[in-house]
Amino acid sequence: MTRIIIIGGHGKVARKATPLLVEDGHEVTSVIRDPDQSKTITKLGAEPAIADVASMQKNDLEELLRGHDVVVWAAGAGGGSPENTYALDRDAAIRSMDAAAAAGAERYVMVSYFGAGPDHGVPPDNDFFAYAEAKTQADAHLEESALKWTILQPSGLTEGPTTRKIDVHANDAGQVSRGNVAEVIRTVVGSDPSAVAGLKIPFNDGDSPIEEALRHVR
């Protein structure tokens, strides 16, 4: 049994991924800010943990993450102010990576976005710039860490059908259903760590079964 902690547990993707992970026999802790969301998390089969990761320091995050094997970062500022975006999507994410390593959680799965990287191409006057910069810097920190990391880079999220089929070879961002993103999380977490460690996986909805697609990422 793998012990998983999902940061951003009430997000739409996380709420789809949680019951899949539970179904596979994993023990799931779901980090949420609002205590009123606890009942939803419990119904999904996870154990709620009330914490505001954006305001927590590394030592507190270390205690939160201790005892877990895999950290899944599915949190996001949700298009708020640049200050909030940097505080959560960059600074808190980076602290959580350092805390995960210190707490002994060897694996870290980051939900990023298609196009994140130094050449993201978003101009500074664009409302998306802070998010693009924050995710790029957080991803870079994770890549330089000692964790066994996997960075998921889904394209535009939709409420389309869960087909369990994706495309990892597209040059441009398209769309992908949140259900398929949840299934990718499930597959990565359930994979042999050596098979998915060090992978950056940009993907759209597509025609290849997830397991097959991931074998062709390297």
Description:
It is a single chain. With 218 residues, this protein is an alpha/beta fold. It contains 8 helices and 11 strands. It has helices spanning 12-23, 38-43, 58-65, 82-103, 129-144, 178-190, 193-196, 210-214; strands at 3-7, 27-32, 47-50, 70-73, 107-111, 148-154, 156-158, 165-167, 175-177, 199-205, 208-209. The chain has a 9-stranded mixed sheet, with helices on both faces. α1 (12-23) packs across α6, α3 (58-65) packs across α4 and α4 (82-103) packs parallel to α5 (129-144).
Residue stretches low in confidence (pLDDT < 50, at least 5 long) are none
As a whole number of angstroms, the C-alpha radius of gyration is: 16 Å
Ends distance: 27 Å
Major sheet, described briefly? 9 strands, mixed
Strand portion:
15-25%
Element order: H for helix, E for strand: EHEHEHEHEHEEEEHHEEH
Strand order of the largest sheet: 3-2-1-4-5-6-10-8-11
What is the SS-derived class?
alpha/beta
Whole-number mean pLDDT: 96
Q: What's the number of extended β-strand segments?
A: 11
Basic shape: globular
Residue share in helix = 25-40%
How many helices? 8
Key phrases:
218 residues; two-stranded parallel ribbon; alpha/beta
Question: Which secondary structure elements does this structure contain, and how are they paired or packed?
Answer:
Blueprint: E1 3-7, H1 12-23, E2 27-32, H2 38-43, E3 47-50, H3 58-65, E4 70-73, H4 82-103, E5 107-111, H5 129-144, E6 148-154, E7 156-158, E8 165-167, E9 175-177, H6 178-190, H7 193-196, E10 199-205, E11 208-209, H8 210-214
Helix pairs in contact: 1-6, 3-4, 4-5
